Please model this.
Amino acid sequence: MNTEPRGAVHWIDHFVVGTNNMSAWVDWAVNSTGIARQPIIGLTTAARKRNIKITSFLWWEGGSCRIGAFLQPEFYPPAKELGKDLPRCGFYIRPEDIDKHLRRLDRHKVLHTDAIRTAADGDEGTVIYFADPDGNQYEFWAPVQMPEGAMDIATEESVGRISHAVFGARDLQKNAAFFAKYCGIEAEQDSKTAEGTLVLRLRAGGRLIYKRVDQVDERCSGHGTWWDMHTALTVRQEEFLPSYRKMWDGIPEEKAYKADLNLTIAEQEALPARTGLHRSPVGIRWKEICSRGDEFYDWDCHSFHFIGGKPLSANDSMARYEAIEQEDYLLELAQSIGKADQPDLMKGLGKDNPFNL
Model:
């Protein structure tokens, strides 16, 4: 029997990049994936007065998968060739739809490669590499074996949920040990996997993939210049807070928010795996309540956070789930550490008086 580890990660709920042109990025996302357009956040005077950053999140129908972008304060560095830049985000597609996706990318003048047959990253299938206007890179992934639930939510253009994310790592084993301990993900061994590649299989079938590199990826959120790029990992709703508590017991907290530390790139890259402030309205409240951040970093400056998932199948499978947002845990978090009697912390929490995010 394959027993599920406590706190196991089941899916990548969302993947967030940076952009230098939010309108162009949203147009690209709609055209390349068929996802529904959403309003851009942060463009009102009220938002400016609250210091809300300019961002856009686009949801797959069903709500348990999304992509997003934040407008960056500086210009991005030039991108590497397609299929080489990191990090990258993959999306499931059906093998029989490959030609349709290639035609759509051509129609919208999205930079892409031809379809490539491969098993280098732990699964056998066909990949198409493509990029957004800022040079952030992505993959359409058509596996030979499609995981249950991978295409149950899809865009109008038959692009399924997030299949995998690819990151760089200077030490594969450090990151393998980190995710095994705190995310219930064990490294896979497969003779077809490319040398210098670490495959971490999620419970529902997706993957976190690490490629051995000499230098940390330029566009990762642990570099203080950049804002809010991250990857959100889905755990069962009852494992959400226990997963954070385990992490808080095992790794340090950042001394201050990364943009305020004024560290050199070398100093940033020398920091250990750690937790830190996720500078969103929810993340700020979270840190006020428990003095620990809900964002966590691997050993190579890439940031993540957990999101809760409520299974929608009668057999308790997480093939399909309802996302439980971080704000829904704030009251439980305060109660769990004995701070429910502090009016300043409790203001705006609870179902009858929801926190205005």
